[in-house]
Amino acid sequence: MRIRELRQAIGLSQEALADQAGFARTYLSRIETGGANPSLDAIETLATALQINVESLFVVSKETLE
């Protein structure tokens, strides 16, 4: 998932996004690093907090594939 990339692009800290989503910062950190597998509800909550649709969390850019 592209949570870290999207969060940084809009200038949010982990703490700020975690607060908006109602998560502990440590849980968000684990999601960003692949240490936690979020539920669909958690993914939807993060998308809402980032003001994007869920699909945008999974879109891979061409640069990522190269």
UniProtKB/TrEMBL annotation:
InterPro entries: Cro/C1-type_HTH, Lambda_DNA-bd_dom_sf, TransReg_Diox_bact_type. Residues 3-57 form the HTH cro/C1-type domain. SMART domains: HTH_XRE. GO terms for molecular function: DNA binding; DNA-binding transcription factor activity. Keywords: DNA-binding. PANTHER family: HTH-TYPE TRANSCRIPTIONAL REGULATOR, METHYLPHOSPHONATE SYNTHASE. GO terms for cellular component: cytosol. It comes from the Bacteria. Gene3D superfamilies: lambda repressor-like DNA-binding domains. This is HTH cro/C1-type domain-containing protein.
